[in-house]
Write a structure and sequence with these properties.
Number of helices: 7
CATH superfamily of the largest domain: Winged helix-like DNA-binding domain superfamily/Winged helix DNA-binding domain
CATH class of the largest domain: Mainly Alpha
Strand content: 5-15%
Number of strands: 2
CATH architecture of the largest domain: Orthogonal Bundle
Length: 147
């Protein structure tokens, strides 16, 4: 961990990160999001602010020390902020969350190929509250009618 990383609590663009010395921003982002539980924290905050205990409960099995570290790193990166009602995604965090939709669409096509089914069309990322898929990151496939 670099001195800059120790100061901010996480990887930064322009610095060497785990797996890359290039300083490229994408490598810093992949390091940040690839840390244990980081994506889960972002995902659990998608529905709005959560206080520490509620966030920890949603991230079943995460220790308080790991959650504190991930929140520190995500706050330093500008993905999460502390609001009046608890931890929440910042504007940058919400933008990042929107970028998960194409990844979800690709993952659904991949899953369909892996199971020998034709891929669905019009895949997107939506949050419909608690449903049967909620325990598996609450990703839902949306099939839109063809025009």
């Amino acid at each position: 961990m670099s001195a800059r990383e120790r100061e901010t609590g996480g990887p930064l663009p322009g610095s060497a990160v785990r797996g890359s010395r290039s300083g490229r921003a994408i490598m810093a982002l992949l390091d940040l999001l690839g840390r244990r539980w980081a994506l889960r924290v972002v995902w659990e905050l998608r529905g709005g602010p959560l206080v520490f205990r509620a966030l920890q409960e949603r991230c079943e099995g995460m220790s308080s020390s790991v959650l504190n570290q991930r929140l520190r790193e995500l706050r330093a990166a500008g993905v999460v902020r502390v609001g009046a009602s608890g931890y929440e995604l910042s504007a940058d965090g919400l933008e990042l969350l929107e970028l998960f939709a194409p990844l979800n669409a690709w993952a659904e096509r991949w899953a369909a190929r892996a199971h020998g089914a034709p891929p669905a069309e019009g895949l997107g990322l939506e949050h419909e509250g608690d449903g049967p898929v909620a325990d598996e990151l609450d990703l839902h496939v949306r099939t839109e009618a063809a025009p």
